Amino acid sequence: MFANPILKAWLDLYSEENQLKCDNSLDIERRYIDYIYFSQIQPDRLDRDFDLLNQICDEVPDGIGLIGIAITMNGQLLSTRTDIDDILQKDSQGKFEVYILAYKEKISANELINEIYHKR
Questions:
Q1: pTM greater than 0.90
Q2: CA of 52: how far to CAs of 69, 93, 109, in Å?
Q3: What is the mean pLDDT of residues 65-90?
Q4: Residue 11's closest CA among 25, 50, 54?
Q5: Alpha helix (H) residue ranges in the chain
Q6: By the 8 A CB rule, do 43 and 72 touch?
């Protein structure tokens, strides 16, 4: 859990507002971190698309220190392959970006890349 009392209060408020109940407080912390970070990329998207936040949080391998993984195209979070088609209908080109959030104390960047590459 967060050591900072202000972060802890915001986490508690987020958990209460979203009625998050979980035996593992680390899962709620990861979900909050993902929500805060990825909401900066595309504001309000995660408020409308609850399944996308679930994908970001739940589709990471356990035990290696990952918080979340997301892919964007032209600044829009992707949740399905049809999202790519929709974006390319508006824009003639697409720029992909991959965001990987991890706890730096648990895994180095090289270890993380190797772990992700070999898991998929």
A1: no
A2: 11, 23, 25
A3: 89
A4: 25
A5: 5-17, 25-41, 45-48, 50-58, 81-90, 109-119
A6: no
